[in-house]
Design brief:
Helix content is 38%, strand content 14%. It is α/β, with parallel strands linked by helices.
Amino acid sequence: MIFIADEMLGKLARWLRMSGFDVLYFRQVSDEELIQKARNEGRILLTRDTRLIQRLAPNEYLFITQDHLQEQFLEFFRHFPDLSQDQHPFSRCAECNTPLEPIEKEKVRGKVWPFVFKTQDHFTLCPTCRRIYWEATHVRQIRQKLQFLTRSVADF
């Protein structure tokens, strides 16, 4: 399943991407463009916009009622329970949604901080926006938050 999130759900889109889900997100796009992109690509629209859902068939969207990330995450997985077992953390670019590709350490020399190059062995690259990712200390915190969010789903 692939998704597109409206501008009200940027945080949810980012965390779903970090979980490995294909979620497009645009900060400023018209409702018409959002609907057209969703339909053209077969994406389910994640939205909090009550006027927007009036223009869609029930199978074209998931209306997110909750305000906070944890509850939004839970609401998403309540609606798509099979996806809770289909997470692939850190497999997509958190910024642009492109699948990440492994890159040889030597190819990132001079493109990451010297300390990072010295202390890390594994890197991934976003072929679209060219961001380089590695297992920095903040990744541990992100993993913990993802586990917390996922645990909420499992407890449901």
